[in-house]
Amino acid sequence: MKWWMYFRHKQRIQVIYHLFLQQLKALGLAYLFIAIQLTYYLLQIGKDHNLRDQEITQKNATKY
Predict the structure, then answer these.
(1) Positive or negative, the Cα torsion across 15, 19, 43, 56?
(2) Residue 15: count of CB within 10 angstroms of its CB
(3) Rounded CA gap, 20 and 39, in Å?
(4) Closest CA to 20 of 34, 6, 30, 4
(5) Are 24 and 34 in contact (CB under 8 A)?
(6) Tens of pLDDT along 6-42?
(7) CB atoms within 10 A of CB 24
(8) Residues 6 or more apart from 50 whose CB is under 8 A from it?
(9) DSSP 44
(10) Secondary structure of 6-36 in the HEC alphabet?
(11) End-to-end alpha-carbon separation of the chain, Å?
C-alpha cells in the first residue's frame, strides 16, 4: 500500500492523489462524487490507525 507510506511520512497531497486515482479507476468517471467520498473516508480511517499506532508506541515505551 503505497498510500500508507505517504501517509506515514506526512505527504498529504500524494496520499489524497493516490487514493483518489485508485477509487476513480475502480469506479469510473460516472461515479466521481462517490470516488471523492471514498477518498475522504479512507483518509479518516488512516488517521484513526495512526492514532492507534501512536498510543501503542507510547504504551510500549513506558512498559520497557
Answers:
(1) negative
(2) 22
(3) 6
(4) 34
(5) no
(6) 777 777 788 788 888 888 888 888 888 888 888 888 8
(7) 17
(8) 7, 8
(9) H
(10) HHHCCCHHHHHHHHHHHHHHHHCHHHHHHHH
(11) 30
C-alpha cell at 8: 506515514
Residue 3 pLDDT: 65
CA distance 7 to 55: 17
Residue 41, C-alpha cell as written in the block: 473516508
1 — pLDDT class (breaks 50, 70, 90): low
Helix (H) or strand (E) holding 4: helix 2-8
Cell of 63: 512498559
- Predicted TM-score (pTM) of the model is 0.62
DSSP 48: H
Neighbours of 30 (CB within 10 A): 8
